[in-house]
Amino acid sequence: MFGYYLDLALRSLRRNKALTALMVLAIALGIGACMTTLTVLHVLSGDPLPGRSAQLYYPQLDPRDMDGYQPGEDPPAQVSWTDGMNLLRAGRAHRQALMTGGAVPVQPAQSAIEPFFEDARYTTADFFPMFGVPMLYGRGWGPADDQAHARVAVLSRKLNQKLFEGRDSTGQTLRMNDVAFRIVGVMDDWRPSPHFYDLNNGSYSGQEGVYLPLGTAFELKLGRNGSTDCWGGKPSDPDHMDTAPCVWLQFWAQLDTPAKAAAYKQFLVHYSQEQKALGRFQRPPNVRLPDLMGWLDYNKVVPGDVRLQAWLALGFLLVCLVNTVGLMLAKFLRRSGELGVRRALGASRREVFVQLLVESGVIGLAGGCAGLLLALLGLWLVRKQPSDYAALAHLDPAMLLATFLLAVGATLLAGLLPAWRACQVTPALQLKSN
Amino acid sequence: MDILPILSTLRRHKITALLLVLEIALTCAIVCNAVFLISQRLDRMKMQSGVAEHELVEVQAFGIGKPGDAKAHTQEDLLALRQIPGVKSVALVNEVPFTNSSWNSGIKLDPKQTQATLNATMYYGENALETFGTQLIAGRLFNSDEFVDFDAIQRDEAVRRKVTGVIITRGLGEKLWPGQDPLGKPIYLADQPVRVIGVVAGLIRPSLFNGDATAQWSMVFPFRVDTGNASRFVLRTAPADRDRVLAAAAAELRRTDPHRVILDKKTFDDIRADFFQDDRAMAGLLLGVCIALLVVTALGIVGLGSFWVAQRRRTIGVRRALGATRGSILRYFQTENFLLATIGIALGMVLAYGINLFLMLHYELPRLPAYYFPVGAIALWLIGQMAVLGPAMRAAAVPPVVATRSV
C-alpha cells in the first residue's frame, strides 16, 4: 500500500510543479538556516574532551585582601603563582597542572624561514597525560624537567610541519628567544574546542604551537598572554610576578571520583583557612570546584551572537512551516473531488489520511535534501567568517541525521492538519457538487 | 468596497486565512526585531575613536631575546621612523584603539573608597596624543619634561610620586563628575592622587570587554615606554601615503634591529574594519534572513492567492455575469489581502514587542523604537499587495461565461 501511496504522492506533486517547488523551497530554506546555526551552536557548546571532562576540575580560591569585599562574591578566575605552586606541591589530586599562555619568538635554523612569533603554553608536566594529548613523536616532559627548569619543548604537529617538514624532530634543538630548547615531543592534531584550559585568549582559539615547562618560561621571562588581576592598589613589577598579589595562572586537577572531588574541595577550604591563619589570605575561605563543563557554563563561552542566530533560524523555520501548512492545506482541499471519489470507492478516512501524510513526507524529504545542501553551503559561508570559531563549523553524522529527522518530522507535523482536514470530506457531497 | 462579503467568505476558509495571518504576524515580528538588530550593529560600527583614523598606520614589532639598552634603541627607532618622507609624527605606545589588547585599572575618587568607582584604560607613550591626533578641548597636553620612564615607575616608589597629572576624555570626566569641569580634579589609582590637567574630546579604549557604554573611559599618563615594555609604533601621515609609509616603517624597524620580528603592520582603517568584523558579519546575516523571510512570505501569499482564485473561479464568473467589473474583482482580492495583512500586522506588533522584551532581558538590547511599528506595517502591507496582485489579475481575467459552464 505504501508503494501505491508513494506513487500517488509523486503524481500529485508533479501535477502542480510550482506549488510543490514552493513548498520544498520553503522547507529547504528553513531547514538549511536551522541546521547551519544549530550545527554551529552544537559545535561550540560541545564537550572539548569527551570521556575525560567529568574528571577534570578547575579549583578556585580567593586570596584577595578585604578591599572591596562582598560576601558571596565569586572567587577570581585564576590563581596566583604562590597558590598554584602550593596546590601543585601538595599533589592532592591524581594529576594537576599549572599553566599560562604566552608567545615566543621562534628562530628557525633554516635561513629560508624568517623568525616569527608562535603562541605558546607554559605548563607543568601533567598537562599531557591529564588532558590525554595525543603524541605523534616522543612524549611530554616529566616532573624532573619542571624541577630543573629544563630547556625542553613540545611542538604542535603544525609547527613541526613548518619547521621540520613533518619529520620526527625529537632530540633536535630549536632556538626560541635566543635560547636553545631540546624538542622532546611532537603532538598530534589536537584542538579541544572550546579552548577550555585557558579562556583568556579567545574561547575558541586554536592550538598553541609550542609547549614549555612553566618554570623555564618564568626563569627566561618569556612573553605572556592573558589576563592579570591584581589587588593592593600598587602597580606590580612584571619581573616579580611570583610574589605579586595577582592572579594570572590556570590550575587544573584530575579527580577520578565524585568522592575525591568532595575531599579535594575540603582540602581547598583547609588550605584557605591555613593561608588566612598565616596572614596571606584575608577573606573567609571562598572556594569553588567546578568541573570542566561547569567551568565552561560559568564562563558562558558560547557567543551570544551564535545563540541569537539559532533563535532567529528557528523563527524562520516556523514561518516556513506555517507557510507550508497553508500551501499544503490549499493543495489537499483542492483535491476534494479526487479524494471524494476515493472515499466513495471504499477508501477509509484512515487510508486517505495516510496517503496524504505520505505526500507530505515526500515533500519533507525533498525539502530535507535541499535543506542539507543549503546547510552545507551555510556552514561553508560560516567558515569564511573571520571569527575564531569559524573553522570549527562542520556537520557531523549526528547533525546530518538530525537534519533529516527535523525536516521529515517538521513536514509531517505540518501535513497533519491539512491531511486531517482533507479526509473530513464527505464523499457524497463532493460527487454531487461536481 | 464592501468588507462584509469578504469577511463572510473568509469565514469559510478559516484555517487557511488563519495560517496566512499567522505567517504575516511571525514575519512582521521577526523582521522588525532583525532590522532593529541590524541598525544596532551599524550604529556600533560607526563608533567614534577620537583619533585621526585615515592618517594613521601601526607597526607592531618585537625584539628577540634580552632587550639590552631598550631606551637608546627606542630613540634610534623613533628617529629613523621620523625620517621617512611624509611622516608627520611618530610615537611608541603601549596600546592602540580597536586592537583588543589593553592595560586597564580601577580608579577611585577618594582613597578611602573600598570599591573602585570604575575601570578605565591607560594610554602611555611620549607624543602619543599628538600622533593620534586627538582633539584637546580643555587644559593642556603634557610638557616634555613631565614624562618619566615607565620602567622606573614600576620599580621606584619615588619616581611614581612625581607623576601628578593625567589627561582624560570628556566622556570619562562626564562620568566621574557629571556636569562639572574635570580640570584640576584628583583621581586615585593607588593612594596617591593624580590631577586632571587636560581633557580630550574622545579617545576610545582598545578593548570593549566591559561593554560599549565604557568605550570612552580612557586616561593618558606621561609615561615614556620603550621597546622592552611596548611594541606598537604609530605613525601619522597623509592618507595617500599610508601604504608607502607602512612598508617603509617596517623596513626601517627591521634595519635598525635585524633581530626583531614584525608582528603586524596595518593602516588604521584596516584595524577598525577587523575590530568590527563580527558586527558586519552579523548584520549581513540578519539582512539575509530578513530578505529570505519576506520572500517566503510573499511566495506564500502568491501560492494561497492562486489557490483561492482557482477555487472561486465559478463564483467570480457568476459575479462577473451579474455585472461586476474586472476592477471590482481585482479590488476584492486586494481588500481581502489587506484585511488579512492588517490582522497579521496587529498580531505581529504584539509579538514583535514580546520578542524585543526577551532580547532586552537576555541580550541587553534597548527598547524597539516606536517608529518601527508603522514602518514595518507599511512594508508588509506593500509586500502583501504586490504578492496578491498576480493572482488577483488572473481572477479579474476570468470571463463571465464561466458561470454558465460546469467546471
Helical fraction of chain B equals 40-55%
Main pleated sheet of chain B:
7 strands, mixed
What sort of overall outline of chain B do the alpha carbons produce when their principal axes are compared? elongated
Strand content of chain B: 15-25%
Q: Give the chain pair forming the largest contact, with residue counts.
A: A-B, 53 and 54 residues
Shape of chain A from CA axes? elongated
Tell me the β content of chain A: 5-15%
Helical proportion of chain A, percent range: 40-55%
The rounded Rg of chain A comes to 30 Å
Q: Which structural class is indicated by helix and strand composition of chain A? A: alpha+beta
Give the strand line-up of the largest sheet of chain A: 2-3-8-5-7-6
What does this structure look like?
The complex is a heterodimer of chains A (434) and B (407). Chain A is an alpha+beta fold. Chain A is 49% helix and 14% strand. Chain A is built from 14 helices and 12 strands. A 6-stranded mixed barrel of chain A has the order 2-3-8-5-7-6. In chain A, strands 10-11 form a two-stranded antiparallel ribbon. In chain B, 51% of the residues lie in helices and 16% in strands. Chain B contains 13 helices and 13 strands. Chain B has helices at residues 4-11, 14-45, 70-82, 128-132, 150-155, 157-162, 170-176, 242-256, 268-275, 277-311, 313-321, 326-363, 372-396; strands at residues 56-63, 87-93, 104-107, 118-123, 136-139, 148-149, 165-169, 186-188, 193-200, 218-220, 223-224, 232-237, 260-267. Chain B starts with a helix and ends in an 11-residue tail after the last helix. The relative contact order of chain B is 0.19. At the A-B interface, helix 2 and helix 10 of A face helix 2, helix 5, helix 10 and helix 12 of B.
